[in-house]
Amino acid sequence: MNTHLLTAALDLADRAVPVLPLRAGKVPFGNCPACRGNACGGRPNMKTPGPCDCPRPCHAWAAATTDHDTLTGPAWATAWKQAAAVAWYPGGIGLTVVDLDHADAVAWARRALPATRTVATTRGEHWIYRGAMPSVNAVRDGVDIKSTMVYARWLGPGTGTMTALPDAVQALIVKKPSPVRPVAVPVPTGGGECRHRIPAYLERGISMAEQRIAEAASGVHATVYRTFLAVLSAHGRCGCLTDAHASRLFAAAQAKGESSRHCVDAWSNARTALGM
Fold first, then answer.
1. Which of 55, 181, 226, 251 is the least buried, fewest Cβ under 10 Å from its Cβ?
2. What confidence tens digit (pLDDT) does each residue in 167-177 have?
3. What angle is formed at CA 218 by the lines to CA 210 and CA 54, rounded to 5 degrees?
4. How do residues 5-24 score in pLDDT, each as one tens digit?
5. Cα–Cα distance for residue pair 220/258, rounded to 1 Å
6. In whole angstroms, what is the distance from residue 168 CA to residue 260 CA?
7. Using 50, 70 and 90 to split pLDDT, how confident is the model at 95?
């Protein structure tokens, strides 16, 4: 057993920092078969990973815990023997990590962001702020946001005084939608139908949207919003979308860990952005 990693994890847990073991490559240990891919509906709350009856913990970031019995118990006995690092859940204690992956990203942060606690990484730095926010990768070159529903590798307490999450960081995840070109819906003549109502056309659009969400490897929040925006832009102005279509898209998003509330908000925000 890598006792030094377990000792570090227990020390963090004593300071109310939720933690979990990582294998080599910063990969969490596999979930149980019943919950692989978040199939049982893991929730964005580390205390309720999902309604399953499997041996807890599971679900990567949602498995992060401060409970000593869980950390040292049989569920993770093998994990600590193979562990290469300790991860922690920033959003679980109301923090945000700005992960700067190279020297240019660090230089940008020093120009654009207020100083806060920093932790050296193998290639750059982690800047840690008080306050939680959605997690999004690649908000700019070499910059990831790690907060809610994401874990970060523990690399030490860092140096400097932690400051409040600034607007400049939160603004990094707000992407302006691409300008929407007005769609002129043709008036059917001779008994014809609007092309958006052709079953094959609409079905292909919904299927492609489901696939895009399902294949999202990171930045699920952003992918769901952009997909909803694209679907509504293409099919939402002539009344061809039904509740059944929206339910399919919501189901695809929830299969990736999104909550029903997040789906409703993303759909509403996309409609607002399109002036619908």
1. 181
2. 999 888 875 54
3. 80
4. 999 999 999 999 999 999 88
5. 8
6. 28
7. very high
Q: How far apart are CA 27 and CA 25, in angstroms?
A: 5
pTM for this predicted structure: 0.61
Highest mean pLDDT among 49-58, 62-71, 112-121, 226-235: 112-121
Which DSSP string do the residues of the chain spell out, in sequence order? --HHHHHHHHHHHHTT--EEEEETTTEEPPPPGGGGGGTT---SSTT---S--SSSP-SGGGG-B--HHHHHSGGGHHHHHH--EEEE-GGGGTEEEEEE-SHHHHHHHHHHS---EEEE-SSSEEEEEES--B-EEEEETTEEEE-BT--EE-----BS--EEPPHHHHGGG-PPPPPPPPP-PPPP-TT---GGGSHHHHHHHHHHHHHHHHT--S-HHHHHHHHHHHHHHHHTTTT---HHHHHHHHHHHHHTT--HHHHHHHHHHHHHHTT-
Structural contact between residues 230 and 180, judged by C-beta atoms closer than 8 angstroms: no
Q: What are the b/e assignments for 141-155, b being 16+ CB within 10 Å?
A: ebbbbbbbbbbbbbe
For residue 160, CA distances in Å to 136, 163, 174, 198 come to 25, 9, 28, 60
Peptide bond into 74 cis (omega under 30): no
Distance CA(235)–CA(167), nearest Å, equals 34
The pLDDT value given to residue 231: 84
Q: Which pLDDT value is given to residue 152?
A: 95
Residue with tokens 């695809």, as numbered in its chain? 252
